[in-house]
Design a protein that fits this description.
Chain A is of the alpha+beta class and 799 residues long. In chain A, a hairpin with a 3-residue loop joins β25 (740-749) and β26 (753-764). The longest helix of chain A has 20 residues, at 187-206. Chain B folds into 2 domains: 8-140, no CATH class; 141-195, Arc Repressor Mutant, subunit A (Orthogonal Bundle). Chain B has 9 helices and no strands. At the A-B interface, α3, α4 and α5 of A face α2, α3, α4, α6 and α9 of B.
């Protein structure tokens, strides 16, 4: 021990050290001393915190705030376990369910700003010997499950002595609720629900998991028609009782403390005898009875006592046929019978067989349901047919959503959109030859690049699909070369990037484009292993046909004939794979990549002799490309750069991205807004599909999605209900106006659309919305009536 | 992040608008959400108000000089929030509900710097900011260092024990405390009391 380190620091030095007020050189010396001197260690330990250190300690503890009065109106929030109130990570919003284990709450993850469901595991259950360990083990196993048909578990958490499961929030209804609301389902929909659930069970089985409590209450149907299995792993929590008998009306508690897990109505005979015997075939049995429930509207055992139910299961005396609706085809009845055979050996042995057997009878229920809330990944994109293309309607739906946020910028953009919908196709002589699908962030550091269609005049077109992992490793999964005779006028008549969706461990990229009147549909779905951060599986379909990847990932699509034909080549991709965002930013990348591909003999062979020659110089092409990218994407290049370099921002959304729309903010000085003075607040990151849709160009409808400040040339005040207080546009928008304010907006979409529109802004407290558009050129006025419908009238505005 | 020596406030002031905007949103949305959820405001309206407040905040922050008193920004944010909420109510005339008068009373209190409500606001603001700062600062340290800090300061474990568990010397555990607290102080300067 050196002399130096033995010399005790002054007490105010120690104090400064303990409070974090000391520079590092001095602090190092003290730390060295502390290694040797327990007295000084004790001094620090007993230091009085200052206000700031108190704050630091306090900030990590649950807040002691009360629940907001507005929310506690008898919906169970009053019983929110202590510690969940003002939880540092979760902001509990409301109760969404109540199971045998306890309440399920909807909550917002404060920092991630995403919705989650918190399922409280009752103390009674957790008090069972070993339950806490089992809970954490199960959640750990369950959290590995990542499939569109399985509700993802995020985490197991504990506050005080309350344990809860944090899981994906699914906006939808469970199948029991659905049936109680609307009665038995049409058999096609019932088949689809069961088919999807079977796919989820199959996946889980492949991960060595069985559910052991499959029942309608545990199958959620989302608004887009996806069925998701809830509560994987939870059944195993309760070795000595029923798992989660939903209140009393579903059979209630079993009194015998045997090894019975599962709900009697849906429990297989072997499971009733011994829970440990329950394998995946038990789940198939339960799923079979769930199918019956969906078809008939009640369980086959409704009204029986628990003991009678178990006996009926065991003896195979369940009559499943007599009450089935007559429309149910014989084949479906046979599937049902086989699923529910008493002897497990006589059942389907794997869920995937069930899915296959039901496939031809299945029609998703999604069309009947409104599109809202959480959008989930397509259910097993490789198996189910992809949904009908719907360009404008999707955009409409999107715009309605934006509309709702009632933001002036959205309003302006929508203005242009409306005009373009109703103004006859003007200025359409020269259409962009390029559509970009843009780059999307998939979350967790993943990027997916859907179609970037580059279609130069007189040269082969190119479309790339690629992804980039969190480590920056990137891969082009496919490249499509288009052999075409398209002219600028006929080129791309419709493009629907119905988008990338990223949910669970599956990402899918869907491109629908029409070139020269011929449809090309591409779907790439990628399965991710989030633990290893790698892609484990890629599937691709081309015009409905699944493609065997091993045969090559370069496709040449010939659009010159009557039919769309395609061929495939196993060629090497160039070494330098451009980054997804690079493609959007750097104008030369796509043509360069195209050139590298075309330099390969195999590709040339595929393209054949009739390969068109470049008619324009590279520079011209590049310039054109740059312009087209900017036009189509509508995101100024600097914004992308900023986004690309600021990872913190990327986790929450694209700063300044038009789709992160929420507000128009203008500089303090000057009356004329600069084009780039638009700023947006992102409350939540936009859905990737939304980005795609907004970027899509749909020329045959005569519009380009216009959420693009660059198209606005001038904004002026035409009239104001309160003349004297309105000096300039920025001030007016920032402070609001009593009543209304009419703005004239001049916009130009180069080569496509231009004009002026007047929009009347209505101010309602902090809210601002457009309630009237006028097109002076056509003397046309569109007004929002009090029912929220837009009415169109010729002539002067009615006020 | 290269500018670690600057406080968050300074970075917010220096940042380009759009970046400042995003960081503001990040920092204040959770706080405002929580606070506003106490008043009877619909989700959509609440979001509108929050957006308004944050826009205003990100515009004004540049004007906050380094010699402003700590807490000025916090007070300013409180006032703009109250102003926006009252505006909203005037417009929607919805404050005449059962709890309306209570809530109105709370809002009036919030206008007064020294009221109990304002004190609560200050506390919650500071909490939210410091909580967020911890998230900002954490990635700059090795996990071991963070653990040494967190177990010591947040979980109240004995540093000697922590040193043993983490395979560090006791001095290093205390050093972690000093370094991370110092980093937090630097970040927090101007936004919350650091002295």
């Amino acid at each position: 021990m050196s002399e130096e380190s033995m010399k005790h620091p002054e007490s105010d030095e120690l104090r400064a050290f303990g409070l974090g007020q000391l520079g590092s050189a001095q602090a190092e010396q003290i730390a060295e001393h502390l290694d040797e001197c327990s007295d000084c260690c004790d001094t620090i330990l007993n230091l009085q915190d200052d206000t700031f250190v108190e704050l630091v300690r306090d900030a990590s503890q649950p807040a002691e705030t009360v629940i907001p009065a507005g929310n506690s109106s008898g919906d169970g929030l009053a019983e929110l376990p202590e510690g969940l109130q003002g939880h540092p990570r979760y902001d509990v919003i409301d109760v969404i369910g109540r199971g045998g284990m306890g309440y399920v709450y909807r909550a917002r993850h404060r920092m991630m700003d995403r919705m989650v469901a918190l399922k409280i595991i009752s103390r009674r259950v957790m008090a069972l010997p070993g339950a806490v360990d089992r809970f954490h083990r199960e959640v750990k196993a369950t959290a590995q499950l990542s499939h569109p048909n399985v509700v993802t578990a995020h985490d197991a958490e504990q506050v005080n002595d309350t344990h809860f499961l944090v899981m994906e929030y699914v906006d939808g209804v469970d199948l029991a609720q659905l049936v109680s609301r609307q009665g038995a389902l049409p058999f096609t929909e019932a088949c689809d629900c069961i088919r999807q659930a079977a796919l989820g069970l199959q996946y889980a089985q492949e991960q060595n998991m069985v559910h052991r409590d499959v029942k309608p209450q545990n199958l959620m149907l989302t608004d887009d028609g996806t069925v998701k299995i809830l509560d994987f792993g939870l059944a195993s929590l309760v070795p000595g009782a029923t798992s989660d008998s939903e209140g009393g009306d579903h059979g209630g508690q079993l009194t015998e403390v045997g090894s019975i897990v599962g709900t009697p109505d849906y429990m297989s005979p072997e499971q009733a005898q011994d829970a440990h015997q329950a394998d995946i075939r038990s789940d198939i049995y339960s799923l079979g009875l769930t199918l019956y429930f969906l078809l008939v509207g009640r369980s086959p055992f409704a009204g029986l006592s628990v003991a009678e139910k178990l006996k009926a299961h065991a003896n195979g005396t369940v009559d499943l046929c007599s009450d089935l609706p007559s429309e149910v085809p014989q084949e479906v009845i046979r599937v049902l019978e086989r699923m529910t055979a008493t002897d497990p050996a006589e059942r389907y042995q794997e869920p995937v067989e069930v899915a296959a057997a039901l496939h031809e009878f299945a029609t998703p229920a999604s069309d009947q349901l409104p599109l809202s809330g959480v959008r989930q990944a397509e259910a097993e994109p490789a198996i189910s047919p992809r949904p009908e293309r719907s360009g404008p309607p999707r955009i409409w739906r999107y715009l309605r959503r934006v509309w709702y946020t009632t933001v002036v910028f959205a309003a302006l953009a929508t203005t242009a959109f409306l005009i373009s919908m109703i103004v006859p196709k003007i200025l359409q002589a020269s259409q962009p030859m390029m559509v970009t699908g843009g780059t999307c962030v998939g979350g967790d550091g993943w990027w997916f690049q859907s179609g970037m269609v580059y279609l130069p005049e007189g040269g082969p077109g190119l479309l790339l699909g690629m992804h980039e992992g969190p480590s920056g490793s990137r891969e082009v999964r496919y490249a499509v070369l288009f052999h075409h005779n398209a002219t600028p006028e006929s080129a791309i008549s419709a493009a629907v990037n119905s988008g990338t969706s990223y949910g669970g461990g599956i990402a899918s990229v869907v491109d629908g484009i029409t070139i020269d009147g011929k449809a090309v549909d591409l779907t790439m779905s990628v399965r991710l292993d989030k633990r290893l951060n790698k892609v484990t599986e890629t599937k691709m379909t081309f015009n409905g046909t699944e493609i065997d990847y091993s045969k090559g990932r370069v496709f040449v699509v010939d659009l010159t004939g009557e039919e769309v034909t395609w061929s495939q080549a196993a060629v090497d991709f160039p070494d330098s794979v451009p980054s997804p965002r690079g493609l959007t930013e750097v104008k030369t990348l796509v043509p360069e990549f195209a050139k590298t591909l075309l330099a390969q003999d195999d590709v040339n062979e595929l393209l054949g002799q009739s390969r068109p020659r470049h008619s324009a110089s590279d520079d011209q092409l590049n310039e054109r490309l740059a312009a087209d990218i900017n036009k189509a994407a509508g995101v100024p290049v600097e914004q992308w750069e900023k986004f690309a370099t600021d990872r913190a921002a990327s986790a929450r959304g694209i700063i300044g991205h038009p789709l992160s729309v929420a507000l128009l903010s203008l500089p303090n000085k000057g009356s004329k807004p600069e084009q780039k003075e638009f700023r947006y607040l992102h409350r939540t990151p936009p859905q990737m599909s939304e980005i795609h849709q907004a970027m899509a160009v749909s020329i045959d409808e005569g519009f380009v999605s216009l959420l693009q400040p660059g198209y606005i040339r001038d904004i002026r005040i035409i009239r104001s209900a309160n003349q004297e207080t309105v000096s300039d546009v920025p001030t007016a928008l920032r402070n609001g106006v009593d009543g209304s304010l009419t703005l004239g907006v001049k916009f130009v979409v180069p080569e496509l659309l231009q004009g002026e529109v007047e929009c009347r802004l209505r101010f309602d407290g902090p809210r601002m919305y457009v309630d009237q558009f006028r097109l002076p050129a056509r003397d046309l006025t569109i007004t929002l009536d009090k029912d929220g419908n837009w009415k169109q009238q010729e002539g002067e505005e009615q006020s | 992040m290269t500018d670690t020596s600057l406080s968050l406030l300074a970075r917010l002031q220096d940042a380009e608008d759009s970046v400042s905007w995003g960081r503001f949103a990040d920092l204040y949305i959770p706080l405002l959400h929580r606070w506003l959820s106490r008043y009877e405001i619909s989700e959509a309206d609440r979001e509108d108000i929050i957006q308004n407040v944050i826009t205003a905040a990100s515009q004004e922050i540049g004007a906050f000089g380094h010699n402003q008193r700590t807490g000025d920004f916090r007070s300013w944010l409180r006032r703009i929030m109250v102003y926006r909420v009252q505006n909203h109510w005037r417009a929607s005339k919805r404050h005449r509900t059962a709890n309306g008068s209570d809530v109105q009373e709370q809002l009036n209190q919030l206008e007064d710097e020294h009221s109990e409500q304002s004190q609560i606001w200050n506390a919650e603001h500071d909490r939210a900011v410091v909580g967020r700062l911890m998230e900002i600062v954490r990635p700059r340290f090795q996990e071991q260092t963070w653990q040494a800090f967190a177990q010591q300061m947040l979980e109240g474990r004995n540093p000697a024990q922590i040193a043993e568990d983490l395979g560090m010397t006791p001095g290093a555990v205390y050093m972690a405390r000093n370094r991370i607290l110092a980093a937090l102080r630097a970040e927090a300067e101007g936004l919350v009391d650091t002295l």
